[in-house]
């Protein structure tokens, strides 16, 4: 019996053209954010720590401004709607595994036919003086990378004996997930990392590219 295909798809920079977290912080430009972002990208600071610190620079009084900007700023990568339909039509399980934040991930994906139980992302709390990011999907005992939203932990819920695990992503939050994948669709920094680690990958520009490759591999 063939394995069930399950896809773990990143959000920022993958489903979207832009990285919403960086776009938000860049737009409101709080002092000190650039040094934090650099440390996250070069992996000298964990994702959880870096993202938490960057949003901590923004006052909670800006809640509506931040939410409005984050939603209106989103640009969806070409072919995503068709890709969701392709997964539904072909009995492929699709999960969105995002290091993004609930206040822009859920509203953006609401127009697509994706079960909200299949959307994993970080949370937010505006009750204090500054914006607090919450972490409902932490690392399990097999991961000590302080990921924040731990993609490998989610993937381990789908054993390789039963599932063909596919990762789609672009950046630092996808590195560890890619190491567990049977198939990787990558772009940008994830492509560079896969090449360095000799992980097999297929580069993509749009979701039409992924659909075409999956059709070829049937």
TrEMBL record:
Metabolic or biological pathway: Amino-acid biosynthesis; L-methionine biosynthesis via salvage pathway; L-methionine from S-methyl-5-thio-alpha-D-ribose 1-phosphate: step 4/6
Alphabetical keyword list: Amino-acid biosynthesis, Hydrolase, Methionine biosynthesis
Gene3D superfamilies linked to this entry: 3.90.1470.20, HAD superfamily/HAD-like (3.40.50.1000)
GO MF term list: 2-hydroxy-3-keto-5-methylthiopentenyl-1-phosphate phosphatase activity
E.C. number(s) listed in UniProt: 3.1.3.87
Entry keyword annotation includes Secreted: no
Pfam families per UniProt: HAD (PF12710)
Family annotation (InterPro entries): HAD-like_hydrolase_phosphatase (IPR050849), HAD-like_sf (IPR036412), HAD-SF_hydro_IB_MtnX (IPR017718), HAD_hydro_PyrdxlP_Pase-like (IPR006384), HAD_sf (IPR023214)
Catalysed reactions, as listed in the record: 2-hydroxy-5-methylsulfanyl-3-oxopent-1-enyl phosphate + H2O = 1,2-dihydroxy-5-(methylsulfanyl)pent-1-en-3-one + phosphate
Family named by the database record: Belongs to the HAD-like hydrolase superfamily. MtnX family.
Alphabetized NCBIfam families for the sequence: DKMTPPase-SF (TIGR01489), HAD-SF-IB (TIGR01488), PRK09552.1 (NF007103)
Function per UniProt: Dephosphorylates 2-hydroxy-3-keto-5-methylthiopentenyl-1-phosphate (HK-MTPenyl-1-P) yielding 1,2-dihydroxy-3-keto-5-methylthiopentene (DHK-MTPene).
PANTHER family, per database record: PHOSPHORIC MONOESTER HYDROLASE (PTHR28181:SF2), UPF0655 PROTEIN YCR015C (PTHR28181)
Listed name of the protein: 2-hydroxy-3-keto-5-methylthiopentenyl-1-phosphate phosphatase
């Amino acid at each position: 019996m063939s394995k069930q295909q399950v896809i773990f798809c990143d959000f920022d920079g993958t489903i979207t053209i832009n990285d919403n977290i960086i776009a938000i912080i860049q737009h409101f430009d709080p002092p000190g954010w650039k040094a934090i972002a650099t440390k996250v990208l070069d992996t000298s600071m964990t994702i959880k720590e870096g993202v938490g610190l960057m949003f901590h620079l923004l006052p909670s009084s800006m809640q509506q401004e931040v939410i409005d900007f984050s939603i209106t700023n989103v640009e969806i990568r070409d072919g995503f709607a068709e890709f969701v339909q392709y997964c539904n039509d072909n009995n492929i399980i699709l999960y969105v595994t995002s290091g993004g934040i609930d206040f822009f991930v859920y509203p953006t994906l609401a127009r697509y036919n994706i079960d909200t139980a299949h959307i994993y992302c970080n949370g937010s709390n505006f009750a204090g003086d500054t914006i607090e990011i919450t972490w409902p999907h932490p690392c399990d005992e097999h991961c000590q990378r302080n990921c924040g939203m731990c993609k490998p932990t989610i993937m381990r819920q789908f054993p390789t004996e039963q599932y063909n695990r596919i990762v789609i992503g672009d950046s630092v939050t996808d590195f560890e997930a890619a190491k567990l994948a049977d198939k990787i669709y990558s772009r940008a920094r994830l492509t560079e990392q896969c090449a360095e680690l000799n992980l097999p990958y297929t580069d993509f520009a749009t979701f039409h590219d992924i659909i075409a490759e999956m059709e070829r591999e049937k």
